[in-house]
Amino acid sequence: GLTTTRKEKVLSYFTNNIYGLTASKYSRGRDNITVVKAMLKAGVKIIQYREKKYTRKIMLKEAREIRKLTREYNALFIVNDYIDLAIMSEADGIHLGQDDWPVQDTRSIVGENMIIGVSTHAPAQAEEAIRNGADYLGIGPVFSTNTKEDVCDAVGTEYVKYAAENAEIPWVAIGGIKEHNMYHVCKNGARCIAMVTELTMADDIEKKAQSVLRTLEELAKNS
Ligand code: TZP
Ligand code: MG
């Protein structure tokens, strides 16, 4: 049958989509699996497993469970930080920060099929990530956020605009983005929005994600 290349796969998923991340610390006692299920039910098509405090054993168990669920919902599954966990859980992608392993070295380990995403906070970092073979970029933190420890200062919608005008690969805006301020992000060209606490802290995660997806659709139509 038809084979979808890595590049085509990324492009299709990073257009008009919400990129949902786990955060057990900010999920009001709900476990990561419950949170992911609610996001998937709502129609979120990219899930990142981001877990900073659990043991390897627990992370592997959760990542495999999320791998199963994301397959059922035709969603992309990305693992944050851990190359080994991404491989062991058969994730679609691995997400690297500026202080994680370099893209080229990561590629040599994960092979040609795995998507590699890189967090960037400035144009020079975006250019470097693209040069090194990243498949998508994280653009942010757009607004200030307390969700991430050692997060850099908010980069603002200026950097979103830069990405919209210059990025040669798909990208996702992240950091402090809520339903009420996503207008400013979309207005500057974002077509894929990452959210942590707007979803994980919601009373009803599924309802919130549905509402955010409707808002994104409206904003995309009018721009
Ligand atoms: N990378 C840059 S900002 C951030 C990450 C993982 C956290 C975003 O969380 P929130 O709750 O959507 O502001
Ligand atoms: Mg990292």
UniProtKB/TrEMBL annotation:
<feature type="binding site">
    <location>
        <begin position="145"/>
        <end position="147"/>
    </location>
    <ligand>
        <name>2-[(2R,5Z)-2-carboxy-4-methylthiazol-5(2H)-ylidene]ethyl phosphate</name>
    </ligand>
</feature>
<dbReference type="GO" id="GO:0004789">
    <property type="term" value="F:thiamine-phosphate diphosphorylase activity"/>
</dbReference>
<comment type="function">
    <text>Condenses 4-methyl-5-(beta-hydroxyethyl)thiazole monophosphate (THZ-P) and 2-methyl-4-amino-5-hydroxymethyl pyrimidine pyrophosphate (HMP-PP) to form thiamine monophosphate (TMP).</text>
</comment>
<keyword id="KW-0479">Metal-binding</keyword>
<comment type="pathway">
    <text>Cofactor biosynthesis; thiamine diphosphate biosynthesis; thiamine phosphate from 4-amino-2-methyl-5-diphosphomethylpyrimidine and 4-methyl-5-(2-phosphoethyl)-thiazole: step 1/1.</text>
</comment>
<feature type="binding site">
    <location>
        <begin position="48"/>
        <end position="52"/>
    </location>
    <ligand>
        <name>4-amino-2-methyl-5-(diphosphooxymethyl)pyrimidine</name>
    </ligand>
</feature>
<feature type="binding site">
    <location>
        <position position="80"/>
    </location>
    <ligand>
        <name>4-amino-2-methyl-5-(diphosphooxymethyl)pyrimidine</name>
    </ligand>
</feature>
<feature type="binding site">
    <location>
        <begin position="196"/>
        <end position="197"/>
    </location>
    <ligand>
        <name>2-[(2R,5Z)-2-carboxy-4-methylthiazol-5(2H)-ylidene]ethyl phosphate</name>
    </ligand>
</feature>
<feature type="binding site">
    <location>
        <position position="100"/>
    </location>
    <ligand>
        <name>Mg(2+)</name>
    </ligand>
</feature>
<protein>
    <recommendedName>
        <fullName>Thiamine-phosphate synthase</fullName>
        <ecNumber>2.5.1.3</ecNumber>
    </recommendedName>
</protein>
<feature type="binding site">
    <location>
        <position position="148"/>
    </location>
    <ligand>
        <name>4-amino-2-methyl-5-(diphosphooxymethyl)pyrimidine</name>
    </ligand>
</feature>
<feature type="domain" description="Thiamine phosphate synthase/TenI">
    <location>
        <begin position="19"/>
        <end position="198"/>
    </location>
</feature>
<keyword id="KW-0808">Transferase</keyword>
<keyword id="KW-0175">Coiled coil</keyword>
<keyword id="KW-0784">Thiamine biosynthesis</keyword>
<keyword id="KW-0460">Magnesium</keyword>
<feature type="binding site">
    <location>
        <position position="176"/>
    </location>
    <ligand>
        <name>2-[(2R,5Z)-2-carboxy-4-methylthiazol-5(2H)-ylidene]ethyl phosphate</name>
    </ligand>
</feature>
<feature type="binding site">
    <location>
        <position position="119"/>
    </location>
    <ligand>
        <name>4-amino-2-methyl-5-(diphosphooxymethyl)pyrimidine</name>
    </ligand>
</feature>
<comment type="similarity">
    <text>Belongs to the thiamine-phosphate synthase family.</text>
</comment>
<feature type="binding site">
    <location>
        <position position="81"/>
    </location>
    <ligand>
        <name>Mg(2+)</name>
    </ligand>
</feature>
